[in-house]
């Protein structure tokens, strides 16, 4: 059995697949240490997985601001020293990085100590860290149809996004009961990713009166440090009570996804994969300032596959009409769910874990 270091902290989109891989590795008898950041989102998510072992690394995100750029480089040096010490003490056989600022130190530490490196890119446009570090890797896992210029094909394995095993669709009534939601009509989920989305949170408060008239309730996951929790109630046109519930975070995303009829969300790769797993149609509002506009690439791919609609943030004035048209269109919702089921047929976790184990066992 092998010892794996998994660099996956900083955002939910990096941490969640790292957890999925770590769980599968442990079930196969391997040992893991997950490198995470000191961010609140990491702390909140990992508390649900006490069976895994974590190491909090120094580090901060990249910035072109002169002062922050200096701090970034100092933190990268600290992260490199931290990771090299961790790898020596843990006797690491292999390292896998999921992108972000923590992966840089982990990969250089592995390179300097002769430990094989693997990288996973979830988005349909590879991020800066993955592109920069790909030349140090023995294997790079990319979404189907995505490549990195100049990278030999033998180094690439095309696969999907590793999803945590508890992300499974459950009966809608059961899910709503778990959330404590007593609603009779449609339920719209608003999800801005692990960091939240102020534009989507504001859209809910601005448009809830109109949604309530059609007996559409809202469950809005605002993001940590975005908006305090709370609830609004309104009487719909047929006398039913529609509710808007605001919560900073949910510990069970599968419950929230299963409770909803439709989700309006950012277009992170992890969110999209979980929508597919739970067969939840979506209207995607890509974050317009994402690196390399990768969220738009993610969203357009899912729309082309018939699993979502795309509305740009600059067009939020038409979002209300799109929501009400789609959420009551049973035929189109059914088609979306069928297409999401087709996209979710391949589970990449077992394939990735098997490949990782073979690389760790043969580091030459």
Radius of gyration: 21 Å
pLDDT averaged residue by residue: 89
Please give the share of residues in helix.
40-55%
Task: State the helix count.
Answer: 13
The CATH topology of the largest domain corresponds to Rossmann fold
Q: Identify the quaternary structure here.
A: single chain
CATH architecture of the largest domain: 3-Layer(aba) Sandwich
EC number: 2.4.1.227
Enzyme class: transferase
Family: Belongs to the glycosyltransferase 28 family. MurG subfamily.
Protein name: UDP-N-acetylglucosamine--N-acetylmuramyl-(pentapeptide) pyrophosphoryl-undecaprenol N-acetylglucosamine transferase
Describe the model.
The chain has 364 residues and is α/β, with parallel strands linked by helices. It has two domains: 176 residues, Rossmann fold (3-Layer(aba) Sandwich); 172 residues, 3-Layer(aba) Sandwich (Rossmann fold). 43% of the residues lie in helices and 18% in strands. The protein has 13 helices and 14 strands. Strands 3-2-1-4-5-6-7 form a seven-stranded parallel beta sheet, sandwiched between helices. Helix 9 links the parallel strand 12 and strand 13.
């Amino acid at each position: 059995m092998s010892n794996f270091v998994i660099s996956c902290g900083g955002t939910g989109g990096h941490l969640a697949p790292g957890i999925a891989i770590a769980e599968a590795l442990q079930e196969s008898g391997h040992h893991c240490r997950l490198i995470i950041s000191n961010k609140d989102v990491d702390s909140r998510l990992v508390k649900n997985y006490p069976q895994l072992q974590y190491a909090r690394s120094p580090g901060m995100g990249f910035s072109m601001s002169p002062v922050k750029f200096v701090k970034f480089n100092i933190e990268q040096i600290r992260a490199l020293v931290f990771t090299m010490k961790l790898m020596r003490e843990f006797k690491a056989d292999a390292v896998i990085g999921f992108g972000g600022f923590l992966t840089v130190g982990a990969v250089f530490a592995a390179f300097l100590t002769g430990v094989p490196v693997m990288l996973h890119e979830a988005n349909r446009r590879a991020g800066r860290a993955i592109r920069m570090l790909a030349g140090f890797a023995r294997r790079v896992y990319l979404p189907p149809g995505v490549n990195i210029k100049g990278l030999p094909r033998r180094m690439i394995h095309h696969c999907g996004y590793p999803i945590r095993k508890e992300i499974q669709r459950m009966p809608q009534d059961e899910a709503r009961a778990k959330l404590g939601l007593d609603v009779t009509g449609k339920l719209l989920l608003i999800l801005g990713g692990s960091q939240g989305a102020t534009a989507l949170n504001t859209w809910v408060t601005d448009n809830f009166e109109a949604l309530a008239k059609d007996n559409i309730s809202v469950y809005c996951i605002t993001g940590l440090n975005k908006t305090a929790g709370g609830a609004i109630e309104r009487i719909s046109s047929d006398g039913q009570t529609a509710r808007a519930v605001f919560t900073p975070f949910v510990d069970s995303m599968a419950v929230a996804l299963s409770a909803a009829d439709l989700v309006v969300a950012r277009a992170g790769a992890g969110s999209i994969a979980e929508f597919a797993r739970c067969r939840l149609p979506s209207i995607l509002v890509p974050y317009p300032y994402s690196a390399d506009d990768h969220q738009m690439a993610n969203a357009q791919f899912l729309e082309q596959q018939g699993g979502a609609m795309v509305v740009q943030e600059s067009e939020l004035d038409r979002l209300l009409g799109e929501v009400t048209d789609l959420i009551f269109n049973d035929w189109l919702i059914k088609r979306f769910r069928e297409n999401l089921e087709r996209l979710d047929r391949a589970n990449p976790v077992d394939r990735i874990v098997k490949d990782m184990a073979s690389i760790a066992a043969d580091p030459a």
